[in-house]
Amino acid sequence: MAKKLLILGLLIIKGLSAQELQLQEAVRIALANNHGVIVAKQESEYTKTGIHSGAVGLLPTVDANAGGNYTYSITDQAFHLASIPSIVNQEAAQSNQSAKISARYILFNGGERLKAYEQLKMTGDVSDIQTKITIESTLIQLVNRYYEVARLSNQLNLIQESLTLSKARLNRLNTNYEYGNIGKIEVFNAQVDFNNDSANYVSTQLNLRTAKNELNFLLGRKISIDFSVALELDLPKLEDVEVYIEKAKANNTSILLSNIQLTKLELDKEIVSSRFMPTIVANMDYGYAGSASDVGVFKSSSSLGYTGGVSLSWNLFDGMKKRKAIEQAKINIQVNTTKQQQTLLNIEKEAQNYHDAIQQHLQLIQLEKQNIAVAKLNLDKSKALYENGTLTSIQFRQAQLNLLQIQNKLNNFKYVCKVYEYQLLRMTNELVQ
Q1: Which residues, including other chains, have CB under 8 Å from residue 150's CB and lie 6 or more apart?
Q2: Residue 291 to residues 73, 93, 342: CA-CA distances in angstroms?
Q3: What angle, rounded to 10 degrees, do the helices at 393-427 and 184-218 form?
Q4: Exposure winner among 96, 149, 311, 415, fewest CB in 10 A?
Q5: Pick from 224, 274, 205, 141: which is nearest to 8 by CA?
Q6: How far apart are the first and last CA of the chain?
Q7: Given phi > 0 = left and psi -120 to 50 = alpha, else beta, which region is 172?
């Protein structure tokens, strides 16, 4: 037993010597090192590299082509004019060369390219919001893990206090038993209580280590790093629920994504409408062509110059495809408008729920603080009565457990309330600035 207490004492000393990690510092580390956040930023950067005017045809296309060939042959040629002598068994070589630069540019296509470019730029906005959603999700996990470490650390301290009390009670009963004042049953009961408290301590210690490992994982650092966290916290100070609901409806990332989606669908309809207009394309070539031959009328020829033109194409009828596409685009807009209304209602519900939960926990915290004051008085009085022999060991143990239970409830309420506060900040888009 002494060995067990020594081990527990060493573990406590180790915990006290661990470096304290503040929540703000944990957030900074996570934003820099968390692998999910890093991947989200990299994917956003990848998406943005594809956003440029050339991707939708707003820039001309320029191509270069060149070629050449050479032919060697033995040639026989006869001519209709008798005055031209025939060629018999003459070795001859022929060669051709060409090179050309071509440029093509769409002068007009009903504004389709401009609308497509607006849509393309919105993919960058979507990417930014999705990255922010990933960061928000990571930070909420971080806050949960951080305050879980704090909760378990506090719980460990409470169990340690109870363990100290149980040890003192066991020692007292052992002494009384040695003097013959009590029976062995009371000593056995005290020993069981002490062992239960010891097991509870070890179990909580394991839970604390697991919570620290999970927090280290979110921080993107070595899992075995030990640390402590700040145990003191400021409880939320709430404004009226309507303030949070209005902020959430205007700024929540879900509604921002919904707004972009609706705008993109409006542009889809405009893009389809633009296809009722003609397409005008300008072309220009600059090239060289040359040939040389040992036989034939011309020994060599070459040309160098420009060729340019403008073409117009207009799809007058396509089997009603464009009209049906417009109808579908309108339906898509209606569907997403309905989805947006549902999103707004869900945002209002979530904001209301978190606000209500915070209010309830603030009330519970005040009640448990009052209960703790009463439970401490009860334990102090029970201890005095127990020491003068007017209270049984079991009654004293019950007073001890009552205080520990209330302390744990208060401990849980405080940290859960704090997590709800950060969830409410996420709803109003104030978690990540």
Answers
A1: 229, 230, 231, 233, 415
A2: 16, 11, 72
A3: 10
A4: 311
A5: 205
A6: 53
A7: alpha
Contact 359/238 with Cβ under 8 angstroms? yes
> Dmax over Cα atoms in the chain, in whole Å?
152
DSSP letter string, 65-120: EEEEEEEEEEEEE--SSTTSPPEEEEEEEEEEEEEEEEEEEEEESTTHHHHHHHHH
Contacts of 82 (CB under 8 A, 6+ apart): none
Token code pair at residue 238:
């709430």
Check if the beta carbon of residue 431 is closer than 8 Å to that of residue 422. Answer: yes
What is the distance between the alpha carbons of residues 229 and 250, in angstroms, rounded to a whole number? 35
Q: In whole angstroms, give the CA distance from residue 23 to residue 148.
A: 12
Q: Give residue 371's pLDDT band: very low, low, confident or very high (50, 70, 90).
A: very high
- Which residues lie below 8 Å from residue 234, measured CB to CB, with a gap of 6+? none
Domains in the chain, start-ordered, CATH in brackets? 2-33+111-277+319-427 (1.20.1600.10), 61-108+279-313 (no CATH)
pLDDT tens digits, residue range 155-177?
Answer: 999 999 999 999 999 998 899 88
Q: Which of 245, 253, 257, 241 is nearest to 345 (CA)?
A: 245
Instruction: Note the pLDDT tens digit of each residue in 206-264.
Output: 999 999 999 999 999 999 999 999 999 999 999 999 999 999 999 999 999 999 999 99
Question: Could you identify the residue written with the tokens 């939320």?
Answer: 236
Helices (H), 100-183: 112-178
Would residue 319 be called left, alpha or beta, if left means φ above 0 and alpha means ψ between -120 and 50 degrees?
left
Cross-strand partners of 103: 62, 284
Q: What is the DSSP string of 382-426?
A: HHHHHHTTSS-HHHHHHHHHHHHHHHHHHHHHHHHHHHHHHHHHH
Whether the Cβ atoms of residue 98 and residue 285 lie closer than 8 Å to each other = no
> With 80 as the cut, is the pLDDT of residue 75 above it?
no
Nearest to 36 by CA among 111, 179, 133, 102: 133
Residue 52 CA, chain-centre distance (Å), reads 25
| 8 close to 157: Cβ distance less than 8 angstroms | no
Of how many residues is the chain composed? 433
